[in-house]
Structure formats: structure tokens, C-alpha cells
Amino acid sequence: MNINFYNKSDEIMDRGLLEKKQLEKIRSLVNRALATPFYKTLLADVGIRNGKDIRSFRDYQQIPFTQKDDLRKAFPSGMLAIPREKVIRLHASSGTTGIPTVIYHSKNDIDNWTDLLARSLAATGCTEQDVLQNMMSYGLFTGGLGMHYGAERLGMMVIPASAGNTQRQLNMLRNFAVTVVHATPSYLLHIYSRLDSYGFSLKDFNLKKAMVGAEPHSEDTRKKIESLFKIDVYNSYGLSEMNGPGVAFECVYKTGMHLWEDAYFMEIINPDTLEPQPEGGQGELVLSTLNREATPILRYRTRDLTSILPGACECGRVHRRITRIIGRSDDMLIINGVNVFPSQIEEVIMRMPEVGTNYQIVLEKKGSLDQIIIKTEVHQGIFNDNTRELNQLSKRIAENLKTSISINPKVELHEPGQLPVYEGKAKRVFDNREKI
Ligand code: DLL
After folding, report:
1. Which of 29, 96, 190, 307 is most buried by a 10 A CB count?
2. At the topology level of CATH, where does 333-435 sit?
């Protein structure tokens, strides 16, 4: 196996040295965090006034967790740790109504993140010989720009295709002899299903690898994409609160994702008791941004469920591997890569006076893409009117959901009393997609 390194000394080092560096980085991270109003209060409550107060990892574990809601409450800049003029970019998490979670980046932050992606791509065997077509959306979402910078840094030729427009994607794949694509797994399967109808066949392409992430997918889905396209597919994990892609990435051995431990400190906790899990136990991933300047984050509850794989990887990297994400400890849905909480859907539809009180959110696979169906009861009066009005109402509900939370649902209207009523906790979400 050909093993490539982007910066070998950062990837292969003594574990003891890595841990020593991590503790030093935690101390300076705490000092940076103390510059924000949010952490100043949070840390003072547990008696931490200086990074020096963290003498061991045990001390570190006294720091309270940070949650998505804390980031929302700190909107727009309660977690900004550096002067505004030192910020060169912001990203915000997708799919949130009203208050997004905003992450600011300094020049060093972008530089470090870029290095992590260059390192990740190199770990999959990418080199400057490769041409990467980036099919993740460019914008506030981190999948576009994050990967773009990393691939450029490695010297790859990057095509900033962004998401959607399948025919154009296929043309570019062929015309520029693309060797690597970056996309959600569901979009790659969708593209495959459209090859024939757009008059393409695999022979038109020079594709060798795909980097897939941003949404949960199973080992079978990976294998399916590999065998359909006859390429290698690598799992890429990340979240905007931790920069975006480039938090954990598979190497050529494809046996779990190396979590870049010189940039992120990881713990696995039991999401119910919040206690650390024993070695190798499955639980929720908690991360700290060891290097970040603009928006330092301590002990962030990702809500993603995984475990740390035992033993060393054959590639020799010191950074431990996590399993693919097997679910989430909250109710966040990921629909074609877009993150949505059911409560956000409820907020949008309940704002409309024609809509009744009962609704359901149904998720299905339509071909390889996710389809979301909103079934909602509407007031009786509307059913007495003509179908044109009903059609207009479904269209308006769909449009409101599209503009406020970027989902594209099919809307089904029901007469009052038609949807099931639950005595206890209402079941609103019916996820009929493949389970991992
Ligand atoms: O999805 C960042 C990203 C972009 C990762 C491109 C990989 C590739 P967010 O929009 O903040 O950021 O969504 C983060 O998506 O907490 C997971 O629940 C889920 N997720 C991301 N990657 C994977 C993956 C980006 N490989 C949320 N497998 C995370 C399963 C994933 N779930």
C-alpha cells in the first residue's frame, strides 16, 4: 500500500509527546476562551481563571460542556475571542431558523483548517496530479470552501462546481478528466442513476476516488458507490462548530477515520449520564478546538455517536480512529446533507394560520436522494373551497420551508382528525430511510 503524508512529523509522532502537546494546547485554549463573555462566566463558575489552572486531563474534565444552544445564545459574537478586524471569514451552520450558529475564523484558523484538509486528502493518496470536482455547496456551509482550500494547498486542480445541476456536473467530470470528487454519498448515487439518461457511461470518466461526508451513511452504501463507479470511497467527518470537514478522515486502509488529535481533543461520553465511556465504548463524541483563535470552543457536545477503535492503524499515524457515525443522541435530521431539527419545521408550519395542529414528518428515499414529506392537517373551511386554493396552500407551505430552513418538501394536506392522535408523546417523525 502506498502511504502518503502531508506533514509526516505531525502525523507520526510519539503518543506521549502528542498528549503533552495537547495539554499545553488546552491551557492556551482556555486562556483564549477566557477572552469571551460566554466562557469567562462558564469557567469562573468552576473556579478556572487561567489556563494554568488546568494541571491534568482530569482538571480539563471539570469544564462544563458547550452545546449548540450556547452558540445560538451567544449570537452574533458572544463567543468571539479576538478583535473583529482580525477575523477574515465566518461560516454558519445550515438549516437553522432565526438564530444560526456562527463560527468566526482568523487567518491562522483558516490556515490550520486548510492544512488539516490537505493532510486528509494526502492520507487518501491524493496528489498534485489529481483534479478534484467539489460538488458540495459553496457558501455559509463549510463543505465547499473548506475542502476547496485544502485541495488547492495540496496542489490539486480544483473545480468549484458547488452542489446540484447533475448534467453540468457530468459534463465537467468528463471534460476535465476529473479524478476525485467531493460530495454527499446520496448525491453520488443520484448522479449514477442519471448517467444513462444524460447519455454518459463510465467509460467517459477518469474517476478514481470520492470523498464523502456531511451525512450518515452505511458501509454498504460506501461499497455500493465503490462498485458502481469502480472507485475508492473515503469517509470524511466534520461539523461547522469544529471548522467543517477535516475533523476525521479515512486513510487508504479505510478502517475508521483518523481524528486529527493535534487539532481536536476528543472524549466519548455516555449521553445520558455525561460520564466518560470506558476505552472503546460507544457514546457521544465531545470535541475541543485545540488551535482555534477566533471562536475557541471547549468540550463541545457533537451529539454524534461513535467509538474509538482500539489498536494502531497500519498506516502508522498516531491519531486514533473513530468508527463511522452510527447515529445522533438528539433528534437532528440530516436531509440530503442539510441539518434540520423537527422543531424548526413545526415553527414554520405553525406560523401559518390555515394549518391545523397535527402534522407528521416522513422521510423516504426517492431513488438515492432523501425525500421529505410534510403531512399536515388544515382547517376544515379550506377543504370546502376549490382544489386550486389547496394546491396554492401546499405550495406556500413548501416555499416557506424552503426559504427558512432550506428543505424542499412534498406537502400533503389532510382534513382535521385524519392524522393519528397519540395519548402520550406524539410521534411526529417517521424516518423510513435505510438504517445504518
Ligand atoms: O456537514 C461538515 C462537512 C462537510 C463534513 C463536508 C464532511 C464533508 P454541518 O453542516 O455542521 O457540517 O453538519 C455536521 O453532519 O454533526 C454529523 O451529524 C453529520 N456528518 C458530517 N459528516 C458525517 C459523516 C458538515 N461522514 C453534522 N458521517 C455532524 C455521518 C456526518 N455524519
Report:
1. 29
2. GMP Synthetase; Chain A, domain 3 (3.30.300)
Is residue 289 in contact with ligand 1, taking CB distance under 6 Å? no
239 touches ligand 1 (CB under 6 Å):
yes
Helix (H, G, I), strand (E, B) or coil at 283: strand
Cα distance between residue 419 and residue 409, in whole Å? 18
Q: Is the pLDDT of residue 95 over 60?
A: no
Q: Which residue carries 468549484 as its cell?
A: 160
pLDDT tens figures, 157-194: 999 999 999 999 999 999 999 999 999 998 999 899 89
- DSSP letters along 216-235, please? ---HHHHHHHHHHHTSEEEE
Are the CB atoms for 60 and 54 separated by under 8 Å? yes
The size of the chain, in residues, is 436
Q: In the CATH scheme, what is the code of domain 1-329?
A: 3.40.50.12780
The proportion of the chain whose per-residue pLDDT surpasses 70, expressed as a percent, equals 97
pLDDT mean over 128-151: 97
Nearest-atom number in ligand 1 for the CA of 95 is 10
pTM of the model: 0.92
Q: Is 302 in the pocket of ligand 1 (CB under 6 A)?
A: yes
Query: So where are the chain's domains?
Result: 1-329, 333-435
* pLDDT for residue 183: 96
Q: Which of 233, 247, 304 to mutate to test the pocket of ligand 1 (most atoms within 8 A of CB)?
A: 304
